[in-house]
Write a structure and sequence with these properties.
This protein folds into two domains: 17-55; 60-152, no CATH class. It is 42% helix and 22% strand. It has helices spanning 7-11, 19-32, 36-49, 83-98, 137-152; strands at 60-65, 68-73, 79-81, 105-108, 113-118, 121-125, 132-135. Helix 2 (19-32) packs across helix 3 (36-49) and helix 4 (83-98) runs antiparallel to helix 5. The longest helix has 16 residues, at 83-98. The chain is globular.
Length: 156
Amino acid sequence: MITKPTKSALTSTKIHIGGERKIQLEEFAAAQHAPLSAAIGHLIKFAQNQGMISHGIPQVQVRRATDGIAVAFDDQIPIGFAPSAAKELAEVVRTYADGSHTSKVFMNLDHDYEISRQGRGVTITIPLGGVKKTWAPDLAHEFADLLDAEAAKFDN
């Protein structure tokens, strides 16, 4: 049974685990040449692919709408994107997650969103003035993957 997390669970930043598990996770992260957050993301992706947990990011909606893709953070009213605009958003998110985007802030007034760097993380605001999500690069990539997956449904 899959249950939705509470909002308080989404604001928690610490996980308490035994020392042995911590060492195992650090070894796994080192083998992945990734930070611990990304290594945990690999484990989550494995669980998603095995059907153990649902695909998606808690409190983030990315779903097909009649004429495009609806995106919403938390309990906001979804913002619509044409499939091409969703693909563009995904690409910009990836460049910020990879650190290859040259400007600190990218604002798209046509599609009502903003993306910026926060340290190594990425902050995405949809719509402008709406809810901000700040994610580690691996979670930003996962968001981009969700956008691309929904946009691809229009290619057929």
